[in-house]
Amino acid sequence: MTIHDWPTGPYPARVRIALAEKNLQSRVRFVTVDLYKGEHKKPDFLAKNYSGTLPVLELDDGTFLAECTAITEYLDVLDGPATLTGTTPREKGVIHMMSKRAELELLDAISVYFHHATPGLGPDVEIYQNAEWGLRQRDKAVKGMHYFDAMLQRQPFVAGAAFSMADITVIGGLIFAGLVKLQVPAECTALQAWYARMQERPSVRNRVTMSAPAEASA
Fold this sequence. Notes:
Elements: E1 2-5, H1 10-21, E2 29-32, H2 43-46, E3 56-58, E4 64-66, H3 68-76, H4 89-117, H5 131-154, H6 165-179, H7 189-198, H8 202-205, H9 212-217
Parallel strand pairs: 1-2
Antiparallel strand pairs: 1-3, 3-4
Helix pairs in contact: 1-3, 1-6, 4-5, 4-6, 5-7
């Protein structure tokens, strides 16, 4: 399998964490797509993913899987029972609901803020920007942080009692928040404590460096 991504990207982080949680790193070759050069918007990459977004999982039969949730679903059951996306109908429903909320209320909102209200990827890539919309989405992301803080005051993980894809999505959001210098509000103590715990997980701590051996041997 091949992962097309950008090593420090918050969306690629979601798949890299899932790979490590499933112990599949040795089965993946990483190919870097340079976001700041706009390589993800070039025809060669768009042939792999119409949306022009990262990451993309390329299977050995030539199939391309985009979208972090779809890739995580695939990886989660590749070699055994699901551990990230739920096993019962209730677990699956709650995990998917919370992961989608993390996308809408946190990760994607920060992405819009980055692309519209900051220099983003630079003038060669950011063809259109709407700063007002970006700032509105920044405020939405802060509101989302308060929502997840409230959830984590009641339970140890985002979707309940166990680590799941929903946690990975919130981690991606907070990685992005760090990149754009958007601080978690001081009063969100449960979210801060949870994120500190998450950063100690090997899958999170080693997500950027995991590609080095594969790239060197490619």
